[in-house]
Specification:
It contains 4 helices and 7 strands. With 113 residues, it is of the alpha/beta class. The chain has a single domain (2-112), classed as Transcription Regulator spoIIAA.
Length: 113
């Protein structure tokens, strides 16, 4: 999992790029650690780049929802980019597309955040 920090003026933006399928307990633990580190560092603007994620299971969706809410609670935002067709379909049928902000690309996400 790759994490980079960019600055947009005075605001720090974390760009998190997980890889693989969001289906294993180890994957969830690593993602939790990364998100907790962001909040502990007061970095509450997050872009999750899903270009290297093939699939997401129900626990993975639950984790994303939980962290989306955690960042929002701290006054931040979590945006998703590079969401593949099967995951987009999953967000649509579960109505999670109403919760998550899915952007077309990195530039659009940075502008929006």
């Amino acid at each position: 999992m790759q994490t980079t920090i960019q600055e947009k003026g005075q605001v720090k933006i974390a760009i998190i790029t997980p890889a693989g399928s969001m289906t294993s307990h180890m994957f969830y633990e690593e993602l939790d650690r990364v998100f907790k580190d962001m909040i502990n560092q007061d970095i509450i603007k997050v872009i999750v780049d899903l270009k290297n994620v093939g699939q997401i299971t129900a626990p993975g969706l639950g984790q994303l929802i939980g962290w989306h809410n955690a960042f929002a609670k701290h006054g931040g935002r979590m945006l998703l980019i590079n969401v593949n067709r099967p995951i987009t379909h999953l967000f649509l049928i579960t109505k999670l597309s109403l919760i998550f902000e899915i952007m077309e690309n990195m530039e659009a996400a940075i502008q929006a955040i």
